[in-house]
Amino acid sequence: MKLLGISGTIIGAKTSVLVKTILDEVKRKHSDLEVELLDLRNYDMQFCDGRKLEEYNQDTRDIIEKVSQADFYLIGSPVFNCSFPAPLKNLLDLVPPSAFRHKVMGFAANGGTYQHYLMLENQLKPIAGYLRAYIAPSYVYAHSSHYNLSNEISDEEILRRIEDLADELVYMQSSLVKEYVSL
Fold first, then answer.
1. 10-residue averages of pLDDT along the chain (183 residues)
2. What is the CATH number of the domain that holds 57?
3. In degrees rounded to 5, what are phi and psi of residue 81?
4. What keywords is this UniProt entry annotated with (predicted)?
5. 128 lies in which domain range?
């Protein structure tokens, strides 16, 4: 099974740190899983405009392939102006909806106010529902005060939530695979 963590922004480092921390927790507890971080800062992703897949640049095609080939997802996003950033929306537009169907999707976000966690509930979870993904019930929201001066997550409650989400993602995906095999 392959878990793909997506850092859905092209600026800043906190989202990537948050996603990587959760992926590291999954890997620590489940070394048999394949875990990969897709950090959009490292790609020259083109805008979705309806052209054929082969007409996009190599980076864009690589992103679509990585997302399509994953078995389940951890999607990370910063919160800008009470919403998620355009690069993440663009990724969701580029990837065929069928790539997400019947796959587990969990969320993590970071922002500058304590109320911005609502973006996960009001925007990303409904999109996942539209894509027919199985949505992990819990998520991690980290406020900028939860990071130390070295840009590492230092808040004990957030670290506990990271551990819980890591367990939940693997449990849900494992249960689905077992259920699918037994059908």
1. 97 97 97 97 97 96 98 97 95 97 97 91 96 96 95 96 97 83 50
2. 3.40.50.360
3. 50, 45
4. Flavoprotein, FMN, Oxidoreductase
5. 2-182
